[in-house]
C-alpha cells in the first residue's frame, strides 16, 4: 500500500501531536508530585517504589537475575519487604557496562551518558528515555526556581562531555527563561581567562561550577586586575561536582560577594539534592527514594544518624537503580527546614573512601579543607596535603607559608579536631594551578604528593 503525500503529512503531524501530548503528561506528573505535602509524598513514594521494583525485576537484566519475582510482588503489598531487596554497588554498575542495566528497548533511549566517576576509573553508563530526561529537566527547573528566575544570566562551568549534568542544567535554565553562558569545563578552547572575560561581558549573575573551580576563577580574575566582588555581577554561586566545606563556601561568599548554594548528584543518579532559598540542601524525594544504611552491616539507620547514602530511582524508566550504595557519608536531618519545603535535608560528610587515618582518629578531605581554607587570609586560596603517620603535611602558597599566624591557626585547629601534628611546606603554585586548569573536576586532592610517600 502506498501513502499519498497528504497522508504522509497527516502521519507526521499526528506524530508531532503525540510527542507534545506525551510531554504534557510528563509536565502534569511533575507538577502533581511537586505540590505534595510530606504525607502525600510518603504515600506517593511507597507506590512509586513498588512500581520501580516491579519494572526493574521484569525488565532490567541485572535485577531480573538478582531480585526474585515474589520479592517484587511482596514490596507492592508491604513496604517493609523493600529492605530485603539486595544492594547495588558501583562495581555492579561497572560489571553491567554498557547495557546490563538497560530496562527499555534501546530505540527508546534518548541519551547515553557515561561516568568514570569517583570510583576506580571503570566506566559506568547512564540512560534516559525522552520522558525520563524531560521529567528530570522539569524537576531541576522547579528546584532551581528557588533562587533563579528569567532575569538571571547563568554561566555554567561544568563538564558537558558524556555527562548529563551540563545539558540537564541548560534545559532546566531554558525552562526558567534564564540566559545561559555555556562555559564547560577544562576545554582548551575556553581556559579560565576566557571564562572570566565571558562572565564580565555577559553580566553573569550566577556561576554554576565546583567550589574549587570558583576559587580558580577568582584567582584568574584578580590576576587580570579584576576584583570578583566589585567588577563582576555574579551574586550567586551554585556549587556542583564536589563537596564544599563550610570554610570554602564562606571564602567564596566573601571573595565574590555572592550567596553560595550547593547541589549534589551523580551521572548515574542525576540530581540527588538541591539547595533551598535558605542555602540548605534538600533531598530530591520527588524522583528518588533515600536510605541511610550502616556501611558495615547494611542495616537501615533512622533519620539523624550518620551512615552511607543508598538511593532508589522512582522516576527513571530507562535505568532503574535499587538501593544503590553511593559511597557518600551522609545524615538526613529529622527536623523540617524553616523554608517550608516538605523535602528532608541532607548533611553530606564526604566520601566513605576519603576517610583518612590521621592523628588519633579519622578525617575526611572536606574536614582538612575546612581547617586549611578556614585559616587562609590571602589569595591564592590553594593548598595540597598529605598524611604521614600522626602528622598532616600541608603545602601552602609561598606568602601564606611564610605567615606565622596562618601556620599557627592551622596547627591549632588540626590539633583540636584530629589530634594531629602539622608540618608545612611551600606549594608549587604554577604546577598546582596547571593541574586545576586541566582537570574537568578540579579538587584540592593531594595530587601533588611527593613521590615515595605512602598513600593515606
Ligand atoms: Zn530549606
Automatic annotation (TrEMBL):
Residues 175-311 form the AMP-dependent synthetase/ligase domain. Coiled coil: none annotated. InterPro entries: AMP-dep_synth/lig_dom, ANL_N_sf. This is AMP-dependent synthetase/ligase domain-containing protein. It comes from Streptomyces marokkonensis.
Amino acid at each position: 500500500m502506498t501513502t499519498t503525500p497528504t497522508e504522509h503529512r497527516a502521519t507526521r503531524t499526528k506524530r508531532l501531536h503525540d510527542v507534545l501530548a506525551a510531554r504534557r503528561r510528563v509536565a502534569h506528573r511533575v507538577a502533581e508530585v511537586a505540590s505534595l505535602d510530606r504525607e502525600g509524598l510518603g504515600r506517593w513514594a511507597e507506590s512509586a517504589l513498588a512500581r520501580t521494583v516491579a519494572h526493574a525485576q521484569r525488565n532490567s537484566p541485572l535485577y531480573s537475575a538478582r531480585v526474585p519475582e515474589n520479592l517484587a510482588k511482596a514490596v507492592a503489598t508491604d513496604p517493609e519487604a523493600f529492605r530485603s531487596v539486595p544492594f547495588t554497588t558501583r562495581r555492579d554498575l561497572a560489571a553491567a557496562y554498557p547495557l546490563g542495566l538497560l530496562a527499555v528497548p534501546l530505540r527508546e533511549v534518548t541519551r547515553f551518558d557515561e561516568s568514570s566517576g569517583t570510583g576506580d576509573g571503570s566506566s559506568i553508563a547512564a540512560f534516559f528515555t525522552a520522558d525520563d530526561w524531560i521529567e528530570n529537566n522539569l524537576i531541576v527547573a522547579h528546584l532551581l526556581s528557588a533562587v533563579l528566575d528569567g532575569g538571571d544570566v547563568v554561566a555554567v562551568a561544568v563538564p558537558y562531555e558524556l555527562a548529563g549534568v551540563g545539558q540537564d542544567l541548560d534545559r532546566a535554565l531554558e525552562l526558567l527563561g534564564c540566559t545561559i553562558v555555556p562555559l564547560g569545563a577544562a576545554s582548551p578552547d575556553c581556559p579560565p581567562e576566557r571564562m572570566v572575560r565571558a562572565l564580565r561581558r555577559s553580566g553573569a549573575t550566577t556561576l554554576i561550577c565546583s567550589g574549587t573551580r570558583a576559587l580558580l576563577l577568582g584567582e584568574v580574575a584578580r590576576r587580570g586586575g579584576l576584583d570578583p566582588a566589585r567588577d563582576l555581577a555574579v551574586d550567586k554561586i551554585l556549587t556542583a561536582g564536589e563537596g564544599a566545606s563550610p570554610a570554602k563556601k564562606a571564602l567564596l561568599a566573601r571573595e565574590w560577594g555572592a550567596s553560595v548554594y550547593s547541589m549534589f548528584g551523580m551521572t548515574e543518579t542525576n540530581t540527588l539534592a538541591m539547595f533551598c532559598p535558605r542555602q540548605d540542601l534538600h533531598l530530591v524525594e520527588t524522583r528518588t527514594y533515600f536510605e541511610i544504611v550502616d556501611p558495615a552491616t547494611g542495616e537501615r539507620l533512622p533519620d539523624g544518624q550518620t551512615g552511607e547514602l543508598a538511593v532508589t530511582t522512582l522516576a527513571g524508566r530507562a535505568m532503574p537503580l535499587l538501593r544503590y550504595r553511593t559511597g557518600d557519608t551522609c545524615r538526613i536531618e529529622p527536623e523540617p527546614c524553616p523554608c517550608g519545603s516538605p523535602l528532608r535535608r541532607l548533611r553530606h560528610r564526604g566520601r566513605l573512601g576519603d576517610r583518612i587515618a590521621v592523628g588519633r582518629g579519622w578525617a575526611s578531605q572536606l574536614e582538612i579543607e575546612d581547617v586549611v581554607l578556614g585559616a587562609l587570609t590571602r589569595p591564592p586560596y590553594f593548598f595540597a596535603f598529605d598524611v604521614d603517620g600522626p602528622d598532616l603535611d600541608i603545602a601552602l602558597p609561598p606568602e601564606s607559608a611564610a605567615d606565622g599566624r596562618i601556620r599557627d591557626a592551622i596547627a591549632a585547629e588540626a590539633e583540636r579536631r584530629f589530634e594531629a601534628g602539622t608540618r608545612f611546606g611551600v606549594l608549587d603554585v604554577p604546577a598546582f594551578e596547571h593541574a586545576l586548569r586541566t582537570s574537568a573536576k578540579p579538587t584540592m586532592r593531594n595530587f601533588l604528593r611527593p613521590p615515595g610517600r605512602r598513600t593515606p
